[in-house]
Every structure is written in C-alpha cells, then in structure tokens.
Amino acid sequence: MYFQGKLTIDPSQLTHIEKVKPRKAFKRILHYLTLGGVTEEQEVETFTAVSILQQLYMVFATSKINNIVRLSHDTRDFYLDEAGLTHDLKAALDHYETRVNPKSVDRFDKLVMVLEHEDETFKYLIEVYINRTHEVGEYPIEIVVLGFFNDFAGEDLDQVQYKLSHKIGSQKSYDAFLKEKRVPFEVFVQRLTQAIQEHIKVDDIQVEIQRKILLSRSKVSAKDDIRYNKRKGNYGVNYGYYGFDDYILYAVSWIDNCQDYSIVVDDAYYETMGGNDLGHMDTIDPSSQPLFDSSHSIFGNVSDFPNDTTSRDGGSWFNFDSFGDYSSGGSSCSSGSSCSACSSCSSCSSCSS
C-alpha cells in the first residue's frame, strides 16, 4: 500500500495564471516543440503549456523538491534519469538536442514532469501532467503525489516481510499504522497545494487522497520478479524508475502480509503492475478472496496491460487569447549554457523571470 494525492486545477482557473516566458531549460523545450512548423494557434497553446509547466517546477524548487526523474512530451523523453543522478537536466537536454529530428516533432497532447523527493516518513514520486486536449474526467493540469512508506523498503523479500510482520502483523497495528502515516502525508500535500496557490495564483485546486494497493499477476519473490510496464506513454511508478525497487517490492508484498495475518483491508483503490485501475473496494479480506488468480476476478476480468482507447475531441485547453504576446526565442538558455543547476535552479533568477 501507498498513499496517493491527486491535485487537479479546474479549466476555469487557467486564465487566472500569470503568463511567464519560459527560460533556461524550459525555453529550450518550447523551441523543440515548435520547431516543426506548427501553426500560430499551436505555438500559442504550446507556449502556454510550457509556461505553466515551468511555473509548477519553480513551485517545487522553492519547496526543495528539485530532483527531476523524467521530462516528456507524449512518448518522447526530453530526459529520463536511469542512474539516480541529480542536477543533470541541462546535460540531458544537450544530449536530446543532438538527436532530435525537427521533422519528427509534432503537436503535443501531454507534457509530463516526474520528480522524486524524500523525507523521514515517505519516498515521494510526483507526476505532473499538462494535458492539451479535452478528455472525459481529465483536467488540464493534474499533479499526482505518491507516498511510499520508508518503514518497509528492503533489499530482499525476507527483509521486507520481517518489517511488514513487525509493523502491521495484526488488525489493530495495521489500522493504527495507516492512521498515523496519513497525517504527515496530508500535511505534505496541503503544503504543496498552498505553494501552488501562492506562486501561480490559482485559487481552486481540488484535492483527493486515496489508499492505493498494487497487485501483481504472479507472486513476487525478489525485485527481479517485478514486471514493470515500460510501454511508451506510461509515466506511473509501475514504469520502474531508478531507486524505487525497494518500495515497489514492499508494495506488491502488502497483500501477502494481509493474507498471512488475516488482516481486513478497508477503503482502498487497487491497481495492477501493468497500470490497470481496478477501482475501489470498501472491504476485502485477502485470506478468503481471490486477489491472485489470473484475472483478479474479484474486480471482474481485466487485462494487465490495457490498450489506450480514450477518445479525444481535438480541442485544446491552452489556445485562449489571454496570454497575449510572447516570444519563443531560440534553443539556447537565455543567459548562456553555463548554468549547470537548471534541474534545481530555484536560486537562478533567469529561470523564473
């Protein structure tokens, strides 16, 4: 189990966001997305989306959340950290620039920024989605905060099971543990919400917090057994980001522990390692219900790796006129390429002004 906080910004709030010209790394991203001969309308919506993405990044940086894991548009990665590096966004963009084909750059549908952060209670994965098009149940800006318990991260399954059994080996200790941990997670999400409201002047942010449980189609005995979903367009924790193996190992072992100790799981949302959302269950007793059969039949027959059948109407959130005039500029950082802290430059004035 882990906690998920989802922050969504209502479409009506978009016009309240102050326009800020993209600088440094984000100016280069804007250049990449508009060098393929896009129309004026497409350039305006791209400028708007990149501007908002940059402002959100600055919110994180000022909150000392400055480790970017991934930066993408649709299925193309500007940056993907596969080595646990820090402060390396500029170098990654330099590499991207050498291999990008202008003719292959197309109108974006989704800009994605993934960050990681850690405190004494949680290991966080933060996913930021800037969605260009209208979809059912989708907002133009979505921020998903995942909080994994530091208590249970372990190098191997025996270590994980030992920690689980000693921390949540009874119904009483299980319930008390979740109640205790929910408080600091809610505080973290609340502070992030307040920072967004303060820095980009958005009043109406909807927040939803859930308990999430990962299910594997087969038993996991070691980290090497974890089946990640590396398909293009998948940005969730089940992608298999560097440094999260220990946390995924405990997360997929959670139900095993509940089954072994006859712990009833209340009020949880379930998801497969393939990324399939199985929905919410008020109460499940894992010791008596078939969570590990081939089809997760308690939720209905599902595929572990679903095809994306979501329809789009082609409309854009970001092609309104309120952002006025702008200049996309060139591909270089606005103050030269010597700023090596572009991935966490909360102190670099040229990134925010």
Structural overview:
- The two termini are 41 Å apart.
- β4 and β5 form a beta hairpin.
- With 353 residues, the chain is α+β, with helices and mostly antiparallel strands.
- It has helices spanning 24-34, 40-62, 89-99, 157-167, 171-200, 245-260, and strands at 2-9, 67-73, 76-80, 110-118, 122-131, 141-149, 205-215, 265-272, 277-284.
- It has one domain.
- The protein contains six helices and nine strands.
- Helix content is 29%, strand content 21%.
- The protein has a nine-stranded mixed beta sheet, with helices on one face.
- The model is unreliable at 305-311 and 322-353 (pLDDT under 50).
- The protein is globular.
Which features would summarize this protein structure in a list?
globular, single chain, 353 residues, alpha+beta, 9 strands, disordered C terminus
Task: Write a brief caption for the model.
The protein has 353 residues and is α+β, with helices and mostly antiparallel strands. It has helices at residues 24-34, 40-62, 89-99, 157-167, 171-200, 245-260; strands at residues 2-9, 67-73, 76-80, 110-118, 122-131, 141-149, 205-215, 265-272, 277-284. Helix 1 packs antiparallel against helix 2.
User: What structural class do the secondary elements suggest?
Assistant: alpha+beta
Percent helix among the residues?
25-40%
**Gyration radius over CA:** 21 Å
Shape: globular
Strand order of the largest sheet: 3-2-4-5-6-1-7-8-9
**What count of domains describes the coordinates?**
1
How many beta-strand runs? Answer: 9
